[in-house]
Fold this protein.
Amino acid sequence: MNLTLAAKDGRNQPRDEGRAESPLAVRGLTVSYGEKPAVFSVDATFRAGAMTAIVGPNGAGKSTLLKAALGIVRPLSGKVTCYGKPLAKQRGRIAYVPQRASVDWDFPTRVIDVVLMGLYRQLGLLGRVRAGQMETALACLDRVGMREFADRQIGQLSGGQQQRVFLARALAQGAELYLLDEPFAGVDAATEKAIIAVLKELKAQGKTVVAVHHDLSTVPEYFDRVFLINTTRVAEGTVEEAFTEAHLHEAYGGRLATAQMSVAG
Amino acid sequence: MLLEALTLQLGYNATLVTIGATLLGIAAGATGTFLYVGKRALVSDAISHATLPGVGLAFIAMVLLGGDGRFLPGLLLGSAVSAAIGLLCVSWLSTRTRLAEDAAIGAVLSVFFGLGIVLLTVIQTMSSGRQAGLETFLLGSTAGMLWNDAVIIAAGGALVLALVVLLRRPMTLVAFDAEFAASTGVDVRRTDLAMMGLALAITVVGLKIVGLILIVALLIIPAVAARFWSDRMGRVVGIAGAIGGASGWIGAALSATAPDLPTGPIIVIVAASFFAVSLLCAPGRGVLAAVLRHRRFRARVHVRQGLLALAQEQPIYEGLTLRLMRRAGLIRADGVATEAGRAKAARALLDERRWQLLRADPRHEAAAARYDGLTPLETLLTADQIAELDRALKPEVAT
């Protein structure tokens, strides 16, 4: 009885609390390119059903944390669990939207083909795309307002449109956990609105969203939880708890513009 | 003569060579597409040059063991092993050292090739090596091709093709977006090595017909040519296979029409002519299509500018604009607007005014992004929306 009370109170909870059910939990994660760690001994437990922003200055290891959590880069040390199990067994429950820069835009692929890539796990090596799956892919394009572009070569789209197609591919994965790397970087205002609407829809369906985010002014509006990082973990919690001036100052040091501070504060 | 060669009526050897070259071309074209879109074309050049020391060592080993040094399966096995070592060297140098991949390719290619040439020279001095003819692996030689050789090429090509079909999805995913591929659980490094392994198999299978120096052409040229014809990966792979197969078939037939014509180089030249045709004539990505598109676009811009000038009664100075407008019957030879010209000019001006209004209105942000100075607004908005714009336009026009 006492234990449950303590957990509810939230003060004396052990560090591991919620790790078993958490969609994504990392412990002691260190990633290094060369001999300077980009992420050092980070613990993070992302809350199910929440929209969490990973926030921090440039080069603070935001994207690296995400990539290491997904096994895209190999960590030096640390453990990642997804819904309490090793990542390898949970791939089908995860969808990922990488940074746009990671792609060759002249690749011979149409918008619809990119979305179908989200179904490759389901299709296996040789399975043919059935009518129902094609419908799923088109419906995903519809949700991001890109259905009419289905037959375009991917390089003919604007940056914002490309980002929406990537989001549609993640939707096609039919996951429970959505990880996005800077989804709003270099996109137009209409796209930003469209993306955030889809993400809020996902949250309303009980899905978990974690996004690397660089625009401090929109954090309170878009997200309900914040993970602040500057190579090491600075703060984690609801926007009210973690997104405070003191924590931001700790994470950004002198690099934070006062204008952003006042909005954040 | 050529017709007989193309229809496989030019004798036993020519028929074997033609069938072998066709199968090799299909498999090479399909495999090469993945190398090309994955920007790994040059790695295959390192692989092919790295086969040579293996050929030499296999020959020496077989002679020392008392066998026939020219036993083809043995030579191919040796070439595969040394090519694999070369491939792993490139992979290791570019991922684990500070060397960039291009430098690693250059280093491995030249060192292995040099070593191979040294070995061939040594073999020349061996008593059993005088007639070895190993140098034919450099550019291929089909003169003495046997039934067994053809079977090896056909079986190898078919196996590679089957593996390409099996691995097409992971290979496409890794080539397009490696990070996303990794996030879905695809092993990027292994997929990459598998792709290079297929290129290696093509190289080894193709040693007899095309030779190690030119095999990279058969891997890459069909893929590059095919890319002009489609924006869909599956189709590009299929077209590349077709171009590769056609090159092998036509090339082998051509070389059979006269004695001493080298098969491999002719196959490559045929492939290159497919590339040249694609480069020039392909719709969409081809050079001619691009030139035509640009000229049409320029003409539309000039006419639109001319019409706007007419409507605002400004003089037109540019010769091209005047010529285009005269040809379209919009102005007379003396530069005065015709009936049709005046009507069109008025419409162009109205359209431009509507656009101006639309672009100033934040509610129409999405439509405003489509402004290019050419597209008539009627094609983007409904009649109701146009009417609404015109209502806002009226007072302006009146003043």
In short: Chain B has 18 helices and no strands. The longest helix of chain B spans residues 147-176.
